[in-house]
Amino acid sequence: MRGIVYTGEGVEVTDELEVRAPGPNEVRVRIQAAGVCHSDLSVINGTIPFPAPAVLGHEGAGVVESVGDAVRSVKPGDHVVIATLASCGACRACSTGHPTWCKSSLGNISTPFTFKGEPASNFAAASVFSETTIVSEVQAVRIPKDIPLTSACLIGCGVLTGVGAVLNRAKAKPGDTAAVFGVGGVGLNVIQGLRISGATRIVAVDTVAAKEDLGAAADSRSVASRGPSTASAIPPCCAARWTASTGAATPSPSGSRRGVPRWRST
Fold first, then answer.
1. Cα–Cα distance between 133 and 127 in angstroms, integer?
2. How far is CA 263 from CA 30, 87, 184, 248, in A?
3. What is the spatial distance between Cα 5 and Cα 111, in angstroms, rounded to a whole number?
4. Is the pTM of this model over 0.90?
5. Which fold has domain 3-156?
6. Tens digit of each residue's pLDDT (9 = 90 or more) over 128-153
């Protein structure tokens, strides 16, 4: 089986990968499409320490090949999106709609793979950079077969992160005005979440001017600027006359921002 393996010194595209059969509560999925998240790159460059060897990838979608004896929610042939949260599905956190609070969702490093005959770990409980992977039943989310798997694969991380930040953390409401810093994979999904929430004015902010069209395509009012003046360009774009109560967010050489703008209506 082919896959992409983190070796501790880099990555290797290999056909010397094998995966075991699914356990009673597990699902074996043949991956049809996968996205590349920065977290995968962070493992490769050492920003996220991770045991090697490991099969990378955590944004994926595919077709169920086989299931364990206790699996009831999916069957072979179903199209599924793979979620990275291997929550138990039965504890108080899960039953009240907070699967990210489930203790079972923490860690979840196991070794369903062998690489050149030696055990290899999964990554983010998903490992979709392989032709076939093993996940728990709760991670295999069935979707209609008419949804393109090349789009569906992004739901597992980028969409959940961006839309979830709006619906579950910011709790945007109809009529809100919002500024989105960064128009990458997550930022674009923040914009989508704001549209779902009914935000009236959405301002997309990015230091890369070429991303202005992406923000516009996502139905935001885009601001593309370079340098420390990015944040100062926001207030004129907002119909609600927002003003900054602290300094501008200045891009640092690493790409992070120093100083967080806070806004008050006037």
1. 6
2. 47, 37, 23, 11
3. 13
4. no
5. Quinone Oxidoreductase; Chain A, domain 1 (3.90.180)
6. 999 999 999 999 999 999 999 999 99
